[in-house]
Amino acid sequence: MTTTTYREAMRRALREALAGDERVFLMGEDVGAYGGCYAVSLGLLEEFGPDRVRDTPLSESAFVGAGIGAALAGMRPVVEIMTVNFSLLALDQIVNNAAALRYMSGGQFHVPLVIRMTTGAGRQLASQHSHSLEGWYAHVPGLRILAPATIGDAYGMLAPALDDPDPVLIFEHGALYGMKGDLPDDPDPVDLTSAAVRRTGDDLTIVTYGGTLGTALDAAERLAGEGIGAEVIDLRSLRPLDMPAVLASVGRTHRAVVVDEGWRSGSLSAEVSARITEDAFYDLDAPVARVCSAEVPMPYAKHLEDAVLPGADDVVTAARSLGA
Amino acid sequence: MTGGDGPAGGDHRLHLLRQMLRIRRFEERTVELYSATAIRGFLHLDIGEEACAVGVTGALAPDDAVVATYREHGHALARGMTMRAVMAELEGKVEGVSRGRGGSMHLFDAATRFYGGYAIVGGGLPVAVGLALADKLQGLPRVTACFFGDGAVAEGEFHESMNLAALWDLPVLFVCENNLYAMGTALARAQSEPDLAVKAAAYRVPSWAVDGMDVLAVEEAATRAVEAVRRGGPHFLELRTYRFRAHSMYDPDRYREKSEIEAWKERDPIPALEAVLVADGALDDDTLARIEAEVAAEVDDAVAFAEAGTLEPVSDVGSHVTATPQADGGLP
Amino acid sequence: MGAFTMPSLGADMDAGTVTRWLVAPGDAVHRGDVVAVVDTEKSEIEVEVFEDGVVEELVVPEGVEVPVGTVLATIAAGRRDESGGGGTPAPETAAVPAPPPPTSAPPPPGPGVPGVTAGAAIGAGEGADRVHSPVVRRLAADLGVDLGSVAGTGPGGTVTRSDVEAAARLAPPATSAPPAPPAPASPPVPARAPVPVAPAPHAGPARARSSPYARRLAAGAGVHVGALVGSGPGGAVVAEDVIAALASGGAAPQAPASPAGPAAPPAGPAAPVAPAAPSTESTSREDRAARLRRAIGNLMSRSKREIPHYYLATTVDLSSARTWLDEVNASRPVTDRLVMGTLLLAAAARAVAAVPEVNGSYQDGVFTPSPSVHLGVAISLRTGGVLAPAIHDADTKSVDELMAALSDLVKRARGGVLRGTELADATLTVTNLGDLGVDEVQGVIFPPQVALVGYGRVSERPMVAGGQVVARTAVTVTLAADHRVSDGHRGGRYLAEIDRLLQRPEDL
Question: Which residues are CB-contacts of C122 (< 8 A; sequence separation ≥ 6)?
Fold first, then answer.
C-alpha cells in the first residue's frame, strides 16, 4: 500500500503501459519536455524517449487523427488532449472517424485508441477550460467513455482501456489530480463495465461520476447525520452505462438523485434519469431529482463559480425534497 | 479481377488504359443505376479524373496504404477491389466491400490496405499521417498515399497534417486531385494562393504539379514520389485534373461554363492514351474493341452480382459498432 | 424498343418536369447524350439517355410534371439492348404507372384535418340558456326525458324533479337519446359501483398524488392509495404511507397514514411488503386506535397549519321540512321512514350547484372544483376516532337513495369494510353532531377539501315570525371554509342556498 495522488496513479499506469507494450506510445501537447500540462507525464520523456512520449504541435485534429491512423495500423496510442474544451477541435476525428470506422468498414477495421483529457471546473479557469462535455461523447455509439473518480480508478482504468479494441475516452477531472489516497501495491484490475457503490444506504440513491463523487459522498455523510441513509453510486463508465447497478440500488431505496457537473439540458444526468424512469418507474417513491451546474458558461470569480457548481448543500436539499 | 493484361498484353500502358476504361464504364453504369434508383445516397463520379487514381495506385506496392475521399470508386477499383464487391456496396448489399454499411462514399478493404473513403473534406489526412506514423515507429518501409481534393486545402486538417507529417518526417504521399472546384466553388474563389503546390511547399514538403489528364505523367511522377517517400519524408503531388460530370448526381452544374467542360473533354485521359498507343503501334482497333468488350462484360457481371446480392438482416444492424456489443448498441 | 424514363437524381426527387426537349422524333441518340432538361424541386438539370437508337415518340410533353420512372420517350433499336446487359433493370419494367393528368387540380385535402362541421361542437345537449340541477339531469336521463322540452315550475322557471316525472308520465321515452346501453359483451357493472381496489382514475377531484412505488405496493396489498393521506412531497402518498396504513389496520384501508418523521421510519423500508397480508392479529386494538388517533392528529394539524379557515353560521327554520317528513313518513312502514339528517345531507349536496367553490380540492396552490359532489360523512367509530367516507354523486341521489347510502355507509364504516374509493375522494364533508346535543359545530376541514358543513341539534327553539316569538323546529348550520378558495360572501351564499332548499323539501 502506497500513499499517492490521482496524478501519480495515472502516471504509474502510463509508465507500466509504456514499459509493458512496445505498441503503446503517448502523444499530445506538452506531454514530453513540459511534463504534461497537469504534470501527469512528468519524467516519462526521459524514461521512454521522444518517439514514445511525443510532443505534438497545437493541432488537435491532426494528432488525434494520427492516433486513429496509428491505431488502425496496429499501434496502441494514448493521446492526451489538454481539456475537453480543446477536444472540440478534434471532434471530427473522434466522432466521424474513430467512432464510425469499425461500422462503416463493415467490421474490417477497428481503432484501439485511448484519448485522455481533463474535464470539469473548480479551478477558476472560466469559460473555455472548465466545462464538462463528456456527456456529449457519451452520446456517440462506438466510443467507450470512462470517468475515473478515485485513485484506484485513475490507475486501474488505463490498462483495460488499452486492451479494448475500440476507442476509449478517459475524462480526468482537473480538480482531482492532487487528491491523495492509498493505492495497493498490486491493485485489482478495474472492470470497465461496472459502476461502483462507494457508500451503501437504504433510503436514497445518489448517482454520480468523476469530479462530483466527492460532493455526493459529502452530502451522504450529512444526510446520515439526519438519519437518511444515502447510497452513492459512481458510474465510472458513462458509455456504456451500468444501468443494472443503478436500477438495483433504486429498487431498494426507491429514490434517486443524479449529480452531474454538466449542464442539465440534454445531459448525462438526463439520460440516467430517463432510464431510471423507463426501467424502475414502479420502484420510484418520488420523482428523480437532478443536481447539475447552472446553465451559464463557467464564470471566473470564485464565488460565482462556487454558486454555479453542484455542491453538497444542493445534493442534501434535493435529497430532502424527495422526502427521504 | 484487376484487369491485368497478362503476359500477352506486354505493354504496361495497355494495363493503364484498361484500368481507366474499367473506372469509366463502371461509373457510367452507376449513373444509369442511380437514375433507376438501384443506387441511392450521394454518388460522386470520377469521370475525367481516372488518370489520377490509376497513375498513383500504379506506383504503389501491395503493402502500401491508401486513404481516399468520397469520390473514390476509381481508387478502389484501381487499387484492386473487385468491381463486383464495389457495385454490391453501391447497391447496399452485404456482399459489398463494406457490407452495405458504407455505400459509395465509404469503401473500405483490409486486403488492399484501403483505409477508406472519408466524406468529411480533409478528414482523411490526419488518419493517413497516423498510418505513416505507425509504419515509422515500427520501422516498416511502407508508404501511405492520401488522396484529397483542392477543397481540402482550405481545411485546417490539411495544414495540421502537412505540418505534422513534415515535422515528423513521415512516409505520406499527399495527392491533391485539383479539379478546380470544391463542389461549386472555384479554386480562385477559395484560395489566397491558388497554386497549391506552392502552398504545400511552405511546409518544406517537396511538391510537384503534374498534368492529371496524362496517366503516364501521373504514374511517372507518382513513382518518383513514392520512392522518395519510402526513403523518408512526405511528398505532395498536385494533379491538375477536371471532372467532366457534375459534383454529384443532383447537381445542376451552373457554376461553370459548358465551353470550359468541352475544352477539358478535349483532353480526356482515355482517348489521349489511346492516341499515344496507336501512334506507337501498340494499340489497334481490334485490341481496343476486345478490351472494351471485356470491360463491358465485367461491368455486366458486377451488376448481376450486385443485384443477386443479399440484404443484411435488419437484426444485425447493431453489429460492428464495437467489438463486444454494448448494451446501448443496435436496435432499441 | 427502349423507354427513356424520368430519372431519379436523388433520394429527395420524386417527380420532375421536362422543361425542354433537346431531341425530336426521328433523331438519332447515343448513350450519354443529353436529351432533355428536367426541372426538379432543386433546379433544372440536363438528363441523359442510356442507350443508342432513334427517338420514336416524345410521350410526355414539355411542362408536365411526372413521377420518377414515368416513360418520357420511346427509343427504337438501341444497340445495347441486344447485348443483354446482365441484370440491368430493364427500362420497360421501370416504366411506372401512367402519369397523372397533365393539368390536374390540386389533390383533395388530405385526411389530416378532421372534418369539423361548423356548430357541431357547441350547443350539444339541452338548451344552453337554462341550467338544470344534477339530480334533475340524472332523472331526465334515466327517464328518457328531453329537458329542453320540459316547462319548469321551480324558482325562476327551473325544472324540478316533479316536472321531469310529470313529463315522463306524459310522453313515452325514446324521444331523446337514452343513456348508452351497456355493451352487450361486457359483464353487467353497477352504474356507480365504486371499484374496490382499482388504481384506475376516478371521476372525483384532481387525483391525489402518489408515487409509482406506493401504487405498486398498494395494489399488491389490496389498498387504494387514494384512500391514504400522503406524507410525501406535495402531499403525495409514498410507500411509507401505504406501509403505515397496512400496519395500522387490516386489509381494508381504514386510516390516513401518519407522516412519520424521516428519522423514524415505521418499518425497515427494505422489508418487502408482500401482497399477502399484513398481520391484523398481531396488531392490538389499542394500537390501531392509537395509530388512527395519531393519523387524525396529523391530518388535522396539517389542516389547521395550512388552511386559513373562516367560519359562518346560520339558523335554518325546519318547520316545512318537518311537516313534509311527517306527511311522507305517515304512509311508509317504519323501516322505510326518512330522517331529518338525510334531508340535511341532501341540502348540503344540492346547494353546491349554487356555490361550487366549496366542493373540490386544493393542491399545490391550485383549487380544482369537482364536477361531482362526493359527500363525505363524518362517522365516529365505537373504538374511537372518526372516518369520513363519501357518498358518491350525492347531488344526484334522491332522498331515499341518500338514506340508504348513509345507513349502509355507517354500518360498513363501523364494521371496517369501507371501500377504498369511499375513503379517497370526498369533495365536501358534512359533520352532524346533533344527536349528541351539540348546538353548533365549528369544524376542521379535511385536506385537500376546502369546506366542511356542520349541523347541530335539530330542536324547537324560539324564533321571531310575523313580529311574534314562536316555537319553531330549527337547526344551526355552520360552514368552515378555505379562505384561499372562497370568502365569507360566497360561504354565506352557500348557507343561504341550504336554507332555501330546506324550505322546499319536496324538491329535494
Answer: none
In which domain, by residue range, is A305 found? 196-321
Phi/psi of residue A155, nearest 5 degrees: -80, -45
Which of C225, C228, C238, C240 to mutate against chain A (most A CBs within 10 Å)?
Answer: C238
Q: Tell me how far apart the alpha carbons of residues A276 and A265 are, in angstroms, rounded to a whole number.
A: 17
Please indicate, yes or no, whether the overall pTM of this predicted structure exceeds 0.80: no
A256–C contact, CB cutoff 8 A: no
This model of the complex carries an ipTM of: 0.89
Find chain C residues with C-beta within 8 A of B35's C-beta: 5, 7-9, 47, 50
> What is the per-residue burial (b if ≥16 Cβ within 10 Å, else e) of A183-207?
beeebeebebbebbebbebbbbbbb
Residues of A assigned a catalytic role:
60, 129
CATH class of B11-243+255-307: alpha beta
Q: Are C44 and C34 in contact (CB under 8 A)?
A: no
Quick one: what percent of chain A has pLDDT higher than 90?
Answer: 93
* Cis bond upstream, residue C212 (ω within 30): no
Average pLDDT per block of 10 residues along chain C, 508 residues long: 84 84 92 87 80 92 90 77 40 39 40 35 41 70 78 74 78 47 42 38 56 84 79 83 71 38 34 34 52 72 88 93 91 86 94 94 88 89 75 91 87 67 80 88 90 93 86 94 94 95 90
Distance CA A35, CA A45 (A): 8
State the total domains in chain A: 2
* Residue A28 included in any domain: yes
Find the CATH number of the domain harbouring A209. 3.40.50.920
Cis peptide preceding C67, ω within 30 of 0: no
Distances in Å between the Cα of B158 and the Cα atoms of A143, B70, B149, B175 are: 25, 16, 10, 11
d(CA B236, CA B225): 8
Q: What pLDDT shows up at residue C134? A: 64
CATH class of segment(s) C2-94:
mainly beta
Interface test with B, best of C4, C5, C6, C9 (most B CBs within 10 A): C9
Among the partner residues B163, B320, B328, nearest to A102 by beta-carbon distance: B320
3-state SS, chain A, equals: CEEEEHHHHHHHHHHHHHHHCCCEEEEECCCCCCCCCCCCCCCHHHHHCCCCEEECCCCHHHHHHHHHHHHHCCCEEEEEEEEHHHHHHHHHHHHHHHCCHHHHCCCCCCCCCEEEEEECCCCCCHHHCCCCCHHHHCCCCCCEEECCCCHHHHHHCHHHHHHCCCCEEEEEEHHHCCCEEEECCCCCCCCCCCCEEEECCCCEEEEECHHHHHHHHHHHHHHHHCCCCEEEEECCEEECCCHHHHHHHHHHHCCEEEEEEEECCCCHHHHHHHHHHHHCHHHCCCCCEEEEECCCCCCCCHHHHHHHCCCHHHHHHHHHHCCC
Beta bridge partners of B68: B117
Radius of gyration in angstroms for the set of CA atoms belonging to chain A, rounded to a whole number: 19
From 3.40.710.10, 1.20.1290.10, 1.25.40.10, 3.30.559.10, which CATH number describes the C308-507 domain?
A: 3.30.559.10
Phi, psi (5° rounding) for residue A303?
-65, -30
For residues C42 and B250, what is the distance between their CA atoms, to the nearest angstrom?
8
